[in-house]
Amino acid sequence: METTQQAEQQRSARQRRRQLLEAADRVVLRDGPHASMNAIAAEAGITKPILYRHFGDKGGLYRALAKRHTDALLDALRTALDAPAERRRRVEATLDTYLAAIEARPQVYRFLMHPAEDTQLPEQGFDVGRHSAPLLRRLGEELAKVIEERVDLGPDSEQLSRVWGHGIVGMMHAAGDWWLGERPCSREQLVRSLADLLWGRLASVDDREGGPGF
Fold first, then answer.
1. b/e burial code for range 121-130 (CB count within 10 A of at least 16 → b)
2. Low-confidence spans in the chain with pLDDT less than 70
3. Model pTM?
4. d(CA 11, CA 182)
5. Is 44:51 a contact under the CB 8 Å cutoff?
6. Angle at 94 between CA 97 and CA 187, to 5 degrees
7. What is the spatial distance between Cα 162 and Cα 9, in angstroms, rounded to a whole number?
8. 140-146-149-152 Cα dihedral, nearest 10 degrees
9. What angle, 0 to 180 degrees and rounded to 10, lies between the N-to-C axes of helices 157-182 and 106-113?
10. Each residue of 152-182: pLDDT tens digit?
11. DSSP letters of 28-42?
């Protein structure tokens, strides 16, 4: 059985880990994809070996930061999807929630999705693409679950929900990445255009009987 001392040690370790992630967030907000383990350790007031002890390497730190931000984004997306409004409005709110998140913290988005251009960084072997793909897959799978719960897609519901979930996430990611870099239109215009694209078959299917709808 876990002792009081062990429980306290675990709470202390979780608190310390949270403090280190908050320090990492501050550096990422400042430096974006160029955020280094040295800078994060300095921000946290520790040495780099201590940072490695908590996260292993930059990949471990990246995964912890990705989970932190993905959890928050998924909570916001679920809230938008479950808002008491008609379906088109909720679809637009969901798209806008994603785009507003990357617009509000573009440096965090770039750190999670784009490698640093400076190949002389100490972490030059770190492959952001290898780590960002699971993040997008997680978003796709989570959205697929939401779709399957809320709309009746017939006998192939599970497979089609996964196709739609990953397809919608891919669309949001690609369109959002392009929009964040070029800003060719307002966020509102992009949301309406993407919703129009989605509004073909999605508008014609029925909600699941007894379910919350979509």
1. bebeebebee
2. 1-2, 115-131, 201-202, 210-214
3. 0.80
4. 44
5. yes
6. 55
7. 41
8. -70
9. 120
10. 888 999 999 999 999 999 999 999 999 999 9
11. HHHHGGG--HHHHHH
